[in-house]
Amino acid sequence: MDPRDTAPDSWEQEDDVEATIDGQLEEAFTAFNVNAKPFVPNVNAVEFVPTFPMNEHSENLDSVVAVEKISSMDVLESAAPVENGDSERTTEEPWDQKEAEPNEEEPGGDSCGNRGPSEEAVTEEVAPEIIEEEEEAPAPKVPPTQPDAPKKEHVNVVFIGHVDAGKSTIGGQIMYLTGMVEKRTLEKYEREAKEKNRETWYLSWALDTNQEERDKGKTVEVGRAYFETDKKHFTILDAPGHKSFVPNMIGGASQADLAVLVISARKGEFETGFEKGGQTREHAMLAKTAGVKHLIVLVNKMDDPTVNWSLERYEECKEKLVPFLKKVGFNPKKDIHFMPCSGLTGANLKEPTDMCSWYTGLPFIPQLDSLPSFNRSTDGPVRLPIVDKYKDMGTVILGKLESGCISKAQQLVMMPNRHTVEVLSLLSDDVETDDAEPGENLKLRLKGIEEEEILPGFILCNAENLCHSGRTFDAQIVIIEHKSIICPGYNAVLHIHTCIEEVQITALICMVDKKTGDKSKTRPRFVKQDQVCIARLRTAGTICLETFKDFPQMGRFTLRDEGKTIAIGKVLKLVAERD
């Protein structure tokens, strides 16, 4: 048997061989192509073929493979250790001359040798070296301007619309066009989707990550991703379109600054989304209630054979939508922007398309970039409504910072429980930072509170300025859709910022005239659809809320019942509890 192909009896005996093997392994590893994809080596792998061109290094390829074989041999085989060491030394020179850069330090082989570690330790020693090098490489996953990331304005964009309008597909396409998803990953998704006979779904898989969502092609939870343009940093919130998951969509919309209403131009699909039971209407209304000021309407699937980029169909969709959006409260001149696009082909998302010569405006991503900045108060009190929480080396919470600034090691208070917590670490869109400004989507690791003690809808505040909490409040509500009348004693589900709680209308105080805003002198006995009233509401448990006048983001709410949105409203006054 060739002495080079053998391994020593036991690793502990052969201390000196160990040192050379470790040293050689590390030299070999650091000289790889650093622009390759991030790669954590498995020293026990069977065989490794290097990434450099075969013909240049063919003469020393055999010796390199020998090195790998030595490192991966089973301990069972016997060895002639000295020759092993020699054979490896011969490979050292070509590696050094051809691959290693002159300014690169050789990772210390002797520190490994002194300890005489096991194979696992070798992997651990080598892995940090590789990871450090990888970070210098321009990996497409991470936005290119990492150090300056917080300086860009953060904008949260929620994609809303009827089920199957193409929200996740557009989200996936945008991530691909801005370089946040690699081509290889998408090719893999495409192959997997083809196997399931769903080849048009592959782009949505960038955002629909769990198996159930992929199998059915329906988003369930709000998908999150982010991309950057030259001026801004965008977080995509991909809301589910299905009517069973509207509560999740409300949670997503409550974090958004800007909504993108995706409608399908395909014959029949636009109509079903827009009819009474469709989600196009409900979502637009919920987005407005959640405080979204600006709406971009993307008329998707323009490449469909039934549409074929037809201006008539585009105008038809537009004519039907404008009156409705106006009724919801959007100003068609200032707040709404229509544009045609195709999520599957990516036409008119980043670059203008030739197919659509009649559209003269900016494509979607440049349009997002050109929107005016949002004015956010950095000096206000800290308010961070919690969207989600989980355990990961401590308690981690997710949410969007609505006002104020949070920094590392800051002491905050969790309302309504009044737990004092400390911020251990801050992640803004998965990038670690020391401080955060309003509008950023944050992950905070907290000390001083258990994960079980937190519920979505709790608020993180600063101790000097706590948010209000209570159970009873007066609010102005607009009944949007309800078949029968609503009387005191009516129960519904209240969605306010990220909080979901059962609520009862305990009293109707007065009616409000829609046109003049005058309040009635007498108490109404009931209210019905399309009427506006002021009512007293009482929740089942204590919740955090503010009046609409003081803090709009935490003073607007929706009432839902039997899977439908019944009313929208704003908090006028908080009522102190009577003991």
From TrEMBL:
GO annotation terms (biological process): nuclear-transcribed mRNA catabolic process, nonsense-mediated decay
Q: Where is this region: Disordered?
A: 76-152
Q: Name one GO cellular component term.
A: cytosol
Record's compositionally biased regions (Basic and acidic residues): 86-101
Alphabetically list the UniProt keywords: GTP-binding, Hydrolase, Nonsense-mediated mRNA decay, Nucleotide-binding, Protein biosynthesis
Report the residue ranges that make up the Tr-type G domain in this protein. 152-378
Give GO MF terms, alphabetically: GTP binding; GTPase activity; translation release factor activity
Where in the sequence does UniProt note compositional bias of the Acidic residues kind?
121-137
Q: Name one Pfam family in it.
A: GTP_EFTU
Gene3D superfamilies annotated for this entry?
Answer: P-loop containing nucleotide triphosphate hydrolases, Translation factors
Q: Does the keyword Oxidoreductase apply?
A: no
PROSITE patterns linked to this entry: G_TR_1 (PS00301), G_TR_2 (PS51722)
Source domain of life is Eukaryota
Catalytic activities: GTP + H2O = GDP + phosphate + H(+)
The entry sums up its family as follows: Belongs to the TRAFAC class translation factor GTPase superfamily. Classic translation factor GTPase family. EF-Tu/EF-1A subfamily.
Q: Which PANTHER family does the annotation name?
A: TRANSLATION FACTOR
Query: This protein is called what?
Result: Tr-type G domain-containing protein
Organism of provenance = Champsocephalus gunnari (Mackerel icefish)
